[in-house]
Design goal:
The protein has 13 helices and 8 strands. By secondary structure, it is an alpha/beta fold. The chain has a single domain, classed as TIM Barrel, CATH 3.20.20.70. Helix 4 packs antiparallel against helix 13 and helix 10 crosses helix 11. Keywords: Lyase, Schiff base.
């Protein structure tokens, strides 16, 4: 394993990645479906809602993003429910590199992390020097987390060393910022490929592995996330290094978020039930979490104008 991490060849990577156990697709999907049926009682539900809220990377990644929208998003991340002083802040705000400076000014001193997508997000179709400049610019502007995309074309063509080297180069360009590596699982075609891409990203230095950009369907799914949780669990067993997981795209309700938390607990273990090790990439999930918290506190649902529309 040590030799593989330090100086692999493409043949070595191919042999290792294709030597990973094959994924039983039926078994994986059945396990995910079974975990999705677990019920949670009121006290545990309150804890789970707050935990999920603290794990949200509140995200805006649209061509029409404006400084005003980003400032409003930062305010919401810091105080999701201004009427409730006990409501926790979100884990991070995630924006395009051009909006990092705006977000940094708003978030400084708050404890909310600032993430930026980079490396020609969402396609990843740019030369490496452009990807590295993109990353360095975001970090220089104040991002302490970088969400990069892998070159899916290179991965699917079997050029694993290309993907490995790019991740390593971006990790170096990040400096002290944490690196989340987006696999774009909806384009990887098979569960076996998702397992291989997860291991490849971890071996190349990812701090987190992330399902999706949110721009491709399907985005995050429970079976895919379960598979990635197995990968980080097995990677820690093999190397002693702990890696985080971030499902992103399509997780919109508190009920869905709780299914993911149950899966984290059952598959990776309670060590991962922490915003440092598990995140939700979401733009609409937060409002539903707030609505459910309000229901638990007051006994009734809030009106449609209770929360901002992001």
């Amino acid at each position: 394993m040590t030799a593989l991490l330090t100086s692999p060849s493409n043949a070595t990577l191919r042999a290792f990645l294709h030597g990973l156990p094959g994924v039983d697709a039926v078994g994986l999907e059945q396990r995910a479906a079974g975990l999705g049926t677990r019920s949670i009682k009121t006290t545990a539900k309150a804890y789970a809602l707050d935990l999920a809220l603290r794990m949200v990377d509140l995200t805006t990644l649209e061509g029409a993003d404006t400084p005003g929208k980003v400032r409003a998003l930062c305010a919401k991340a810091m105080r999701p429910d201004p009427s409730d002083p006990d409501c926790p802040s979100t884990a991070a705000v995630c924006v395009y590199p051009s909006m990092v400076a705006v977000a940094h000014e708003e978030l400084k001193g708050s404890g909310v992390h600032l993430a930026s997508v980079a490396t020609a997000f969402p396609s990843g179709q740019a030369p490496l020097n452009v990807k590295l400049d993109d990353t360095r610019a975001a970090v220089a502007a104040g991002a302490d987390e970088i969400d990069m995309v892998i070159s899916r074309g290179a991965f699917l063509a079997g050029d694993y060393l290309h993907v490995y080297d790019e991740i390593m180069a971006v990790r170096e360009a990040c400096g002290d910022a944490h690196l989340k590596v987006i696999l774009e699982t909806g384009e990887l075609a098979t569960y076996d490929n998702i397992r291989r891409a997860s291991w490849l990203a971890m071996m190349a230095g990812a701090h987190f592995i992330k399902t999706s950009t949110g721009k491709v369907s399907p985005a995050a799914t429970l079976p895919t996330t379960l598979l990635m949780l197995e990968a980080v669990r097995d990677y820690r067993d093999a190397t002693g290094t702990k890696i985080g997981v971030k499902p992103a795209g399509g997780i919109r309700t508190s009920k869905d978020a709780i299914k993911y938390l149950v899966t984290v607990n059952e598959i990776a273990g309670p060590d991962w039930l922490d915003p440092d090790w598990f995140r939700f990439g979401a733009s609409t999930l937060l409002n539903d979490l707030l609505m459910q918290r309000h229901k638990l506190r007051t006994g009734h649902y809030s009106g449609p104008d209770y929360m901002t529309v992001d």
